[in-house]
């Protein structure tokens, strides 16, 4: 097991380095001068001398390889540089917004797994029945509905008509825990609906596959009760692909909650990334993408380890 974890960790480190390097190079290939964009006002062009001075101050006149080495050195020391726009430390801004985005994603994943796994399992047990058809229809609708539509609908129902929850905004947990949780419910539910649909469908397909395995048929032939068979043999083995998909969904959502943060006025990391790309703020973009990449790779590494714990044959096969 330790050998397998070390092997997967080395692959994860290589992937992080590769992604960060590619993003750094691709951003410098995008047309547009950050210094000129910062000094321009509408259609009025910036003063060339001011642009040259700002480029020198930002270090943009240095060779690309030198900028890359300085960037990698800063990353290794925990320094992601300062923003081109306001010279604020990028790491501080990321650490301020990242927990807010992770909070929404973790709450959404928890709700999706809490309702998706039991429903998917029950639908597989009652395959081709009315409940199975209803769950499949509901998950298909949830999967095909855009998140901004879901967000608008839940605001209309729960915030405006029923007035159970606030429509949006953000309050730190330390200031008002109850209000913070109220503000979290709707964005987490809007994000979790599509994840729930994926988890439900994947659980159903995985459970149906495991139910056809020989060891399940043998357990039935021995007269074992239905409950222990489902808990010990079916659900445990069926969770392996479900956890893999859940990890991928969570990794995708780290940088993909832009619309949810916009609809619910939630100041997370995705909106910060969009603003940084629009301003050609290289330190912010590279820093945010690097953090997102590290989290995505870490989530996949965590899923691989959990899958290996559920099924030791995975680690034995990899080693």
Automatic annotation (TrEMBL):
Protein location: Cell membrane
Domain ABC transmembrane type-1: 98-307
SUPFAM superfamilies in the cross-refs: MetI-like
Keyword match Transmembrane: yes
Name of the molecule in the record: Peptide/nickel transport system permease protein
GO cellular component, one term: plasma membrane
Matches recorded under CDD domains: TM_PBP2
Classification via Gene3D superfamilies: MetI-like
GO biological process assignments: transmembrane transport
Family to which the UniProt record says this protein belongs: Belongs to the binding-protein-dependent transport system permease family.
Transmembrane regions listed in the UniProt entry: 12-30, 104-125, 137-159, 179-199, 238-265, 285-310
Keyword terms, alphabetized: Cell membrane, Membrane, Transmembrane, Transmembrane helix, Transport
Main localization, broad class: membrane
Organism: Salipiger marinus
A UniProt-annotated Pfam family: BPD_transp_1_N
Organism superkingdom: Bacteria
Membrane topology reported for the UniProt record: Multi-pass membrane protein
């Amino acid at each position: 097991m330790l050998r397998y974890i070390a092997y997967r960790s080395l692959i994860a480190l290589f992937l992080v380095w590769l992604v960060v390097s590619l993003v750094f190079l691709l951003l410098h290939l995008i047309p547009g001068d950050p210094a000129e964009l910062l000094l321009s006002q509408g259609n009025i062009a910036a003063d060339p001398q001011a642009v040259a001075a700002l480029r020198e101050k930002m270090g943009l006149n240095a060779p690309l390889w030198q900028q890359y080495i300085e960037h990698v050195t800063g990353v290794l020391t925990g320094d992601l540089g300062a923003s081109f726009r306001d010279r604020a430390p990028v790491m501080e801004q990321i650490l301020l917004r990242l927990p807010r985005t992770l909070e929404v994603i973790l709450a959404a994943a928890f709700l999706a797994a809490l309702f998706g796994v039991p429903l998917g399992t029950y639908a597989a047990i009652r395959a081709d029945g009315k409940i199975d058809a209803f769950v499949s229809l509901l998950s298909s609708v949830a999967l095909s509905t855009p998140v901004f539509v879901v967000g608008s609908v839940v605001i209309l129902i729960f915030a405006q008509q029923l007035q159970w929850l606030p429509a949006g905004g953000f309050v730190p947990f330390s200031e008002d825990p109850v209000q913070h949780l109220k503000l979290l419910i709707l964005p987490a539910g809007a994000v979790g609906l599509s994840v729930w649909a994926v988890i439900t469908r994947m659980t159903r397909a995985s459970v149906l596959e495991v139910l056809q395995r020989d060891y399940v048929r043998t357990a039935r032939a021995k007269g074992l009760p239905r409950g222990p068979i489902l808990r010990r043999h079916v659900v445990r083995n069926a969770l392996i692909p479900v956890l893999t998909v859940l990890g991928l969904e969570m990794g995708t959502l780290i940088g993909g909650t832009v619309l949810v943060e916009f609809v619910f006025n939630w100041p997370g990391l995705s909106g910060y990334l969009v603003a940084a790309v629009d301003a050609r703020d290289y330190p912010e973009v590279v820093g945010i993408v690097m953090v997102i990449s590290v989290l995505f790779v870490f989530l996949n590494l965590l899923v691989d380890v959990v899958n290996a714990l559920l099924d030791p044959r995975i680690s034995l096969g990899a080693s």
